[in-house]
Structures are given as structure tokens and as C-alpha cells.
């Protein structure tokens, strides 16, 4: 049985208290809401924390609301199951709800939160193992070692961003509200991520992801496609989110975001440029799908062969575009 290491527990009632604790404790502190990612990682000694700051009791940290302008505001502490069942979110941000419904299992979606999914730790076959397994091969660069066993000559870690919610949020143009000890700011969700398996989040350690704002989508349509070995539980080995708006027969706006094939989500701008202003016929969709395939950089560090995962980006992008333009 894997056991949690000893830690101190704080249960603040508001975000101001949360950031005060984080500022005082420094790198030794971690925030936790559902704990479905952090606690297993702490048991395997991947993530180390002597202080945990529980967010479940923070006032106003969960819930889904819509503004008069049609924006959807999602508290970071909203459980995945609650978001999956929210009628307003399903109507105004279908790609996000589709993505959330694919995460793990119903039991874990009852515990896990959308904020936790956005901040999900990167994953790798050489990292997500027990301490004894990792010691047997020598530890990897991401935790306790100096070598990336996926690419031993590489100076960086290639662990994979495996969040299902993130590509959908980016495609929908969502913003993240971050609260720190001295200020509060909103940034595009895509700006939260770095292409680095270790330093994968671009927010300050003393900042808390408070909420996500999905702007009104107008007459745009969106969807999410996921590749995994089983029909439930598994992380994506490739995920594709697409948002598309047409003006008559032609594409007026499109966003294509892939995930699970690199250390950060990938915005497929070349594929988007092939579609904007054009009629999305079969040839144009095939060309866009091929362009989305090019920036995918899967390595041999998750399930399935990496070359097959790269091919599936093209397949699922094509299927998503076909579904939205049928």
C-alpha cells in the first residue's frame, strides 16, 4: 500500500487567505481541491509538499454561471461531474463539456475539479511509476534524476500535457483568472502553458487559478475528439478540439488545438489558415488535417506507438472538421 507522506493541512475560507499561506510557505506548499492527481503523485513521491492548502471550503470557488453577454464563468473548484451536467455549459461551450465527459471515470469526476484538470501535472511512462520502479532504472530528470529517459541526450524533459479540458478551453478562447497576494489578472488559457515537461505552467507559485471565463460563442460550433486505448479512465494519447464559425458557405473563424502529443497544447495555426475564408469541402478539410499533423511531436513516453499517435492527430482533426461542417 502506498501511503501519503506527513504534511500540514490548512483549510482557508477565502482566496485572500489561500494566497497569504502560499506566500508564507513558499515552494513547500501546494493547493489541493479534489486531489485526484496530487495525492497519487505524493504517494509515489513525485510531488513533494510539507504543507497542503485545501480549497474545498473557499467561498465562491465552485459553480457555473452565465453573464448577460453570454459568457460562461466556471469556478476552478467546480467538479468535473457538475460541469459535465451543467445545461448552460453544454449549450454555450459544448467542446468543453464533451472533453470533461471523457475524463477518467464518473467516480473520479465527482472528486476532480476543472481547475485541477487545467493544472494537471505532465505525464510520462518513466515518471508515473512507483518510487522503487524509478530507483531501479535510476530516476528521471523530472523527479530526483538528471536524465530524460525518453530522449537521454536531451537537455529538457519531454513529459506530456494530458489534460482533456485544456485544448477545448483554448479553442473556445477561454481566459483564466489568477489571484495572487498583490494582484488579480486574466490571461488566455493558452498562455498558462510552457513547452517544458517540468516547468509546464506559466503562473506564479503564489497565484491561484480562481475561475475560467469562456466568452460567448455566438453561432460558432465546437467539438472534442479523444484517442485512448480504453473507452474510459485513460488519459488521451491524442486529443483534438475544434471551434468553427461560418459566414454563409465559407469559414469565418476556426481554432484547432491538439494535446497529448507534446509537453504543451499545440495551436495548429497553419491548419486554421487553410480554412479561413474557404469553403470547407473534402479536399480543404483533408489539407487542414494534414497541416494539423505536422506540429504534433509525440515521443515514446505514453501508451501506443508515437508514430501512430501522430497519424491519429490527422485522422481526428479530419473527423472533427467533418462533424462541424456536415
Please provide the count of β strands. Answer: 12
Determine the mean pLDDT.
96
Taking the sheet with the most strands, its summary is: 5 strands, antiparallel
Structural class: alpha+beta
Walk me through what this model shows.
This protein is of the alpha+beta class and 326 residues long. It contains twelve helices and twelve strands. Strand 11 and strand 12 (266-267) form a beta hairpin. Helix 10 runs antiparallel to helix 11. It is globular.
List the helices and strands and how they pair.
Elements (H helix, E strand, L loop, with lengths): L7 E3 L4 H11 L3 E4 L5 H6 L7 E4 L9 E3 L5 E4 L4 H5 L2 H6 L1 H8 L4 H4 L4 H5 L12 H7 L27 H7 L3 E5 L4 E5 L19 E7 L6 E7 L10 E10 L2 E10 L6 E2 L1 H7 L6 H12 L12 H20 L1
Parallel strand pairs: 1-3, 2-3
Antiparallel strand pairs: 4-5, 5-8, 6-7, 6-8, 9-10, 10-11, 11-12
Task: For the structure shown, list the relevant keywords.
326 residues, alpha+beta, Uridine Diphospho-n-acetylenolpyruvylglucosamine Reductase, domain 2, Enolase-like, domain 1, 4-stranded antiparallel sheet, 12 strands, 30% helix
Summarize the structure.
This protein has twelve helices and twelve strands. The protein is α+β, with helices and mostly antiparallel strands and 326 residues long.
